[in-house]
Amino acid sequence: MDDERRTATPAGPPPGPPSGPRDPGDAWAYGEDGTKAWGRFGAAGLLVDDGHGRVLLQHRVEWSHHGDTWGIPGGARHQHEDPVTAALRESAEEAGVPDDAVDLRHTAVLDLGFWTYTTVVGRASRPFEPVMADRESLALAWVPVADVESLDLHPGFGRSWAALRATLDRTPHVVVDAANVVGSVPDGWWKDRAGAAARLVEQVRALAAVGVPASTLDLPSTAWWPRWTVVLEGEARSAATVPAPSAPRPGLPPVTIERAAASGDDAVVAVVESAVTADDAPVVVVTADRGLRDRVQALGAAVRGPGWLRELLPD
Predict the structure, then answer these.
(1) Which residues are CB-contacts of 151 (< 8 A; sequence separation ≥ 6)?
(2) What is the pLDDT of residue 6?
């Protein structure tokens, strides 16, 4: 094994599939042509990188579907279980991945019509070592990205690896010019600027929890959880005192509130400069202000109008 590869191995060969009660989702799904896939309600898995050029992979036990190959921890979704919950549960059950140690980044969905597989992509928010917590692994390892293709990969993971690898260094960041977005709708915001800004912040927090379609950010995959920064200025700055609610699940990106000491435009530019320096990409600024658009585009940011954001925001 490469010295860079940290591996968890079992004391002896796995004795076989687990026994006992199983969820209704632990069954085959069949297409009209007889094609079968594991997971009556679909399946999901977690691809997590450690931020240092390695991804966590599982050497699948021989008796599993496409056994003795390498892939990501994952499995059948339970009845009424969403794909992200399934991926986090399966990675905890199979590899001991702590549910509070992964920052969610994006999802990629393979849809066969009768069955779906959702790859949830995340990054370790703190170091952890995998633990073989059930019978479904021969080994678990942090594998350098450059070495992944040298392994005998699970066919599905092998087909998707190139596209997934290309996304590992992407960190989208959306910067919201709150004054411009609030002012784009004549709903009486001028009577209570702080209240209008607070409502916008709450809507952005709700959107941050569910993510946005990949196409809205010109990114591959299915949906992304970008970083969010909302810039407040003037009377609206007091909206930043609104406490953030508890996250509905671990790993969701926080919504950062930036209170402009003076010019809101200058504050937006400063946030963009910081994001670009941190290698966030793409950086997207939501504003219709022409002068501000020119300034942030000169820094390499993309620009969307307020309507783009309002179409994404929940009611």
Answers:
(1) 57, 70, 143
(2) 52
| pLDDT above 70 for 7 | no
Instruction: Quote the CA–CA distance of 8 and 264 in Å, as a whole number.
Output: 51
Question: Closest by alpha carbon to 197, among 241, 245, 254, 227?
Answer: 241
The pLDDT tens digits of the residues spanning 67-86 come to 789 999 999 999 999 999 99
Among candidates 49, 68, 56, which has minimal Cα distance to 5?
A: 56
Non-local CB neighbours of 24 within 8 Å, separated by 6+ positions:
40, 41, 78, 79
| Pairs from 307-314 (Cβ < 8 Å, separation ≥ 24) | 307/184, 308/216, 309/176, 309/181, 310/181, 310/184, 310/185, 312/207, 312/212, 312/216, 313/203, 313/204, 313/206, 313/207, 314/203, 314/206, 314/207, 314/210
pLDDT score recorded for residue 23: 86
Q: What is the pLDDT of residue 67?
A: 73
pLDDT at 183: 93
On the question of a cis peptide bond just before residue 282, with omega within 30 degrees of 0, the verdict is: yes
Do residues 156 and 110 lie in contact, with contact meaning Cβ atoms separated by under 8 Å?
yes
Determine the distance from the C-alpha atom of residue 54 to the mean position of all C-alpha atoms in its chain, rounded to a whole number.
17
Q: What is the DSSP string of 107-135?
A: EEEEE-SS-EEEEEEEEESS-------SS
Quick: pLDDT tens for 142-168.
999 999 999 999 999 999 999 999 999
Tokens of 30: 């069949």
**139 touches 70 (CB < 8 A):** no
In angstroms, the Cα distances linking 293 to 260, 264, 286, 297 are 18, 13, 9, 6
**Would you say residue 2 has pLDDT above 80?**
no
Provide the pLDDT for residue 176: 98
